[in-house]
Protein 1
Amino acid sequence: MKTLLLAWALLAGATSTADAPTLVAGVFEPPRIAPDFTLPGSDSKELRLSSYRGKVVILGFGFSSCPDVCPVTLAVLADARRKLGADGSDLQVIYVTVDPRRDDAKRLREYLASFDPTFIGGTGEPEQLAAVRDSYGIFAKERDGGAGFSHSSYTYLIDREGNLRALMPFGHKSDDYVHDVRILLSQ
Amino acid sequence: MTPRGRRLSLSLAGPALGLTAWAALAPVSAPSRDAVFEIPKGTWARRMSGDPVEILPDQIRLTLGIRDTLVLRNRDDVPQTFGPTLMMPGQSFRLPFAQASSYQFACTAHASGQMTILVEPFPETPWARLRFRVRELFET
């Protein structure tokens, strides 16, 4: 009987793994806790990543005068949140600037609100922001002559428990985000 | 050409034609769809001692339906920036691709500061299969 139960448990485990929905995004295995940070938020309050436990967080890095990558990413995220309907309230988009010289809280708030008023931005001192980028392996470098920044264009997906689960490369459609956020919300 | 040379050419032409026909017509598959790159244990120590260890090429070519998933593994004892991201010791990162395109990632490990992942469509036509097999032959 014990053997039968063990075999059933093994079979059930194997089946559940095989049937587990897979993310479109690139997945970290095992996931690690997303490095916590505290920055001045675009809502003029303290932005602490760990205070969003219980929600799925999409974390991106960019700057408000970015001509190409950031507006596309933010428009896609706004569309994804809209498509999630009521579940969208369990998703928090956090966008951390790589350009603190220009992106103060007010400017970030206005910029992000043009995509979705629930999006929250993070700013701060250059050293503070560099430390956050380092903890996530984010690359950012000012282009010559102050012509904007080259920066990592992907976003991170963080689950309700604060685990850094996945990385979505730039160029994915909102449906891919909806797909992955729904999976993370269901776990 | 001498009659002996002609006979030799004809006897070689048959197998060559057969091989080309096979390469163009036989279905293409691979034992695994993963393109795996690993940072071995001790890489950080080697780098610290001045050995410029290169693990990821600055261009990786993948093919949809055959080898279309990038797998990065950090087997070293310290966190490493590997390709586009930071990976903890023992951690792996698995990124499947579903669209043929050229994907650029900022990557500080390369002199250009960029890593390109070129994802090509599944070789549907005989010509595409032939080209795929020839390239595989020379790239491996």
Protein 2
Amino acid sequence: MPRQMPRTPLRWTRSRVRRIAFRDGMLAVAPLLPGTASWGLVTGIALVKAGLTTGQALGMAALVFSGTAQLVTIPLIVAGASLPVIMLTVFLTNLRFIIYSATLAGDLGRLPLPLRLGLGYLTSDTALAAYRLRHRDGEPQVQRIALFAGCCFPVYLVWQLGSLAGIGVAHLLPAGAGLGYLGTLAIVAMTAALVRSPASVVAAAVAIGVALLGRDWPYSLGMFSAVVAGIAAAMLVEARHRRRRLAA
Amino acid sequence: MGNHDPVTTWSTIVVVAMIVAAGRWVFLVLPREWRPRGLLEQALSHAPLAALAALVAPQVLAPLFEAAPGAGMFAGLADPRLLAALAAIAAVHWRRNVFAGVAAGVIVYLALAGLG
């Protein structure tokens, strides 16, 4: 018995490829979602304990959608830091998104602008890690985009749910608890995970030293000097390594 | 702590969201040939670690500078905030996992400082 062919075989195939790739993306990112949920939970607690209302905390999770940026902003809001200081701090701590956008440009570069911006907005460390694990070179663009979208959407959704749970938990906990510090602990863990090479050890050590030295300087100058000094020190270490490798 | 001026808080949230989104969009919008290379790329790759370390170090090490007069700097070493941070760092490097670090830090902090 001859099977009936679909009316538009090409489109039928494309949409099917898209569906399968989207599901592949969701499967690839699934093991990482408990991490996203607990991260959102800690962030939600820290946001409410810093004095944000439920609406503000939810709005921040939905609009900013970045644990680092949200956690970095909280102590600055509490301390009454000026907007330029907050902007510069968020910019510096989230420069990795610029690096991500450069690596994604090849994959998303030719999409229509709204789709590019939409998927770009949903970029997260977790989604990108899952995408890189599952991605194969030479896949057609339809497949790549659907795979990436499949990695991105669950992370966004679970981030919102985790934040919501954290906001709920925070309201149940006694007021005035030192739980705002949980956010700081989350950043400490994230920072420690970035220390992987000799150059990064030097970057962290120099940045910490200068930050302590300048902790009373006005306009967060201490922090910014620390960032510049940390970057410079790491680059010096890398330059020395390169020279040694050339000499050897 | 307590509540902050809603207009200020909301505008801060929106501005932070715009900065993060702009970062995510930069090279999806700009030509690929403008991608950072060489020294600039290197500097960019080290910036997040340097910035995060510079940001948290004064918060984490604050107990060392708050120690009661005469108690000496090392009295601050027993502070829950500092011990929890050390536990977080140790767990991250032991388990090679950020969330293990967060969990260890939170457990040590709650055990030592309690909920109150």
Protein 3
Amino acid sequence: MDIYLPIAQMPVDPFVLLAMGGLVGFLSGLLGIGGGFLMTPLLIFIGIPPAVSVATQSNQLVAASVSGVIAHWRRRNVDFKLGTVMLAGGAVGSAIGVAVFAQLKALGQIDLVISLTYVLFLGMVATLMMIDNFRMLVLHRNVVTRRKLHEHTALHRLPLRMRFPRSRLYISALLPLGIGFVGGLLVAIMGIGGGFILVPAMIYLLGMPVGLVAGTSLFQIIFTTGITTLLQAVTTHAVDVVLAAMLIVGGVIGAQIGTRLSHLMKPEYARLAHALIVLVVAVKLTFDLFARPENLFSVIQLGAQ
Amino acid sequence: MTRRLAFLLAMLALAGPARAQNLTADLSSHIIGITTGFVGANLTLFGTVDKPGDVVVIVRGPPADMMVRKKQKVLGMWINGSSALFHDAPSFYSTASSKPLGELGSPDILTRHMIGLDNLKLQTAEPVAEPRLSEFRAALVRSQQELDLYRAAPVPVTFLGEHLFRADMAFPANVPTGTYSVQIVLLQGGEVIGAQTSSLIVSRIGFSNGVFSVAHHHALLYGLGALVFAVAAGWAASLVFRRG
């Protein structure tokens, strides 16, 4: 039994969507990742138009990050002040991102930019994570994820210094603003939450306590994905609520199961698995970019009514 | 544009029976409604002919602008390079015929009535030189065929006795919405001796139409609704699973 997606304008098997949402949700619960970078390519793979995939994915991420933040908030693992500063940058980033997205789409280069950003960011993050994991698992050396409390890099001494008591940081507000900005840009262009880039940036650049990172980045992601959903709904009309609803239902169930099972997995193995998944996606996208495509032509209908 | 076209088609439909010497035909329905459970539709075309001959039915979907892009190698990467914009290309094309399309008449006749994919009128917005034009044209046709929106082979038109004929036309689930033209042509010895055009409307109805029109006409409201739904779903999920 297929159901017809009103915005994507195509029929799909709802069980395929529930299963996809469930699988990505499961992985995100298990490994503590957003999973947006997996979902968007999967949606495009089953034939959903890229514009609808990216726009709808941002709506689905709102639900995923709300339920994630509530779980972290109960354990007091959210730095609301830092998160708020990040989301100020994120709002600007996603507004610019949506405008850039529309422009690139008109030029016919949006696919290239999506692929390049994926390859660049995923490749970078995968490499960093693999190095970390290699040190931990093979050399049995503990990774220093947080420097001493009062050690500051040159970046921290930029102007506009602010106190973030929850994270015990006294750093320039420009740093979280900038990280939030990049996150917002990525949400709009790649249709992802951006957790995979925010999390390492918050650990390595801000020097935040590791325990607070996931909850705080999710807190910020609620707003950037929310703003992006609104902007996409107004400018591209590409948010498909029926598609989002099915991904959300599958996703929340999968995420809860994943979270329950996550304590069975050692954190270093979870991070290794995360790094491997990121690496596989990055390698696949790089390959697609350089391999001669089977069909050199692409056809799109302009101004579909 | 769409309105002008719809008007034109309506005029044609009205004018149809008057011109249709030797041929009278009608569809089992003039509306295809796309609901949430839509899996495609089948329509039957019935008609009679006064004189024996070959009957061909040409169904064309509402015109659309199609952008065709070709990838080229730049710095080792395959990226979109040259492009051609086809103006008012039919978004859907299928035929029914009582005999193979190529045997119906002279190339001239086939071209005039756009019988067969090779005779489809596909014009670019700006002039494109050969052989690039043929290459892009072929790419457009191939892509639409892969989506099952252009069909090369006709479905049969079967005669029930000497005068009465029928054809079963199938429309896939991804059929574009809009006003379709259904042209029925009667040929005898390669000459057109009767023709009739009627229109068919494909539109979303019910829930899927509601969602689509809210998304387009009340975009902000739609976006807010999508957000509220997502927040509520995320919150509900954490409540349900906390207790469970």
Protein 4
Amino acid sequence: MNPGMEGTPPRILVVLPAYQEERSIGGLVRSLRERFPYDVLVVNDGSSDRTADTAREAGAIVLDLPCNLGIGGAVQTAFLFARDRGYNAVVRIDGDGQHEVEDIPKVLEPILAGRADASIGSRFLGEAGYRGSIPRIFGIRFFRLLVNLTTGYRVTDPTSGFFAINRPLIEFYSHHYPSDYPEVDAYILMHRLKSRAVEVPVRMYERAEGKSSITTYRAVYYMVKVTLSYLINCLRRFG
Amino acid sequence: MTRVTLFSICASTALLLYILEMVRRRRLREEYSILWLAGSVVILVLSLKQDWLISIAKTAGIAYPPSFLFLVGILFILLILIHFSIAISKLHQMNKKMAQEIALMKNRQGKKTDE
């Protein structure tokens, strides 16, 4: 992976952004800590329930945001933490149990092997038949088209929040990370950085507890906002 | 002098004095007062100098000169609103950075008290 890192095992941070997830976060953190030797970081995005305490009791490092920043701002806080503490790779998964933790090694593998800068879990690759609501599937199709037309990436699941990134991307994202719905935007950033992005098949489930951040009536706003910031990102300079 | 120009003289004078008083009392920061002051001064001058207003309106092809005053007013309001949107975005960015920094600091602090 990174030059000069041979010999020492890579330091890996699993990041779970969480908002009002007190019922699912504890079990999720425990199962991560039982299975993997990685540090687990929960970013509590201004929850009013016991999300932070539950995560801490389960053995996670907790970053407690004083107010709700939205998913992008919360995940960026984790990148700042990972940058400052010298982690070599970050795996980001949902804090609500939608992503299969058993698939983490599969997502990490291209990063640890040095084959990619970003490795994104796709619910559409392999035999992992994903069923979602019609507006969600429509949105995913739309963004897939947008990403595939404007970048060279062959993407199947552009809105996936299950991914791993290496040190250079951690450093870049700690400065520039989209605020609201970051995953689609991230493709333009990676394209501009000439990052190597690969997709790996993963399993995703419908939510067990709590509410999705994307309800049907907000889908239109989501589409407009992401398309706008995506196209504007095409015009930006990054340095 | 038409009634609409008399009205615009009174309104722009009142606005000008109000903004100046707010800045004097530090209730309004200078940087946010500039566009308000500029707008009210332009409208006041054009209301007092009827012949300037008429010749500008004629050049711009506006049949009823006082409606040029409305145009100026609307343009300044637009500028002020854009200025506010930019200021809000800047505050949003600062607010986000501060929240992130607080979260990182709380984590460091918690570790110290554990030891």
